[in-house]
Amino acid sequence: MLKGVKLGESTYKNHLDGYNQIDLLLGKSPSARHEFFYFGGPQLGAVRIDDFKYQFFQQPQGWPGGKVTTDMPTMVNIRQDPFERTPLIGEQSLNDLGGGYMNDFFAREFWRFVSVQQEVGKLALTAIDYPPMQDPASFNLDAVKKQIDAAIKNKPGN
User: Fold this and answer.
1) How far apart are CA 118 and CA 9, in angstroms?
2) H helices within the chain, ranges in order?
3) Of the residues 5, 27, 69, 75, which has the maximum number of CB atoms within 10 A of its CB?
4) pTM of the shown model
């Protein structure tokens, strides 16, 4: 699949992440993977690099809820905050959390955004050789209307 397979008129290329996790599964070593990418539909929602997770949008009502974009990614150390309760988005200011602790945290850890930018850049480059094969599913009425409009447009006689 790395070089491509021709099926009918189309050639498909596919690539798994390439990490050999056998030693992890056998309990011989830690994971060879250091980054995870989280997508919400077609949008990159978050990146985890080792203990830090960077979120590009929030979903306060969970997966089926709406997406709230932020002016800059939020960052949380998931070893220190496994339930990802900070930073809070919405009514509370970062200045209010822990007597200004969050501002100090971002000031000390801001350099980490460079590493997440590099990882996202590497991911983007893979799309050149291995482009997405299909659009993600959509369950909203706007997507249903677009399908209906396309079916009407493609109906014989139109």
Assistant:
1) 36
2) 22-25, 101-109, 112-129, 141-154
3) 75
4) 0.68
Residue linked to tokens 């009407």: 152
* Helix-strand-coil split of the chain, %, nearest 5: 35, 25, 45
Class level of CATH domain 34-154: alpha beta
Query: What pLDDT, in 10s, does the model give residues 39-66?
Result: 887 889 999 999 999 999 888 887 778 8
pLDDT grade for 31, boundaries at 50, 70 and 90: very high
Both tokens of 54, joined, read: 């960077």
d(CA 51, CA 15): 26
Q: Is the peptide bond before 87 cis (omega within 30 degrees of 0)?
A: yes
Bridge partner residues of 48 (DSSP): 36, 53
Q: List strand residue ranges (DSSP E) for 65-124, in order.
A: 68-77
End-to-end CA distance of the chain: give it in Å, rounded: 40
- Which of the 8 DSSP states describes residue 137? P
**Residue 95's pLDDT is what?**
52
pLDDT for 60: 80
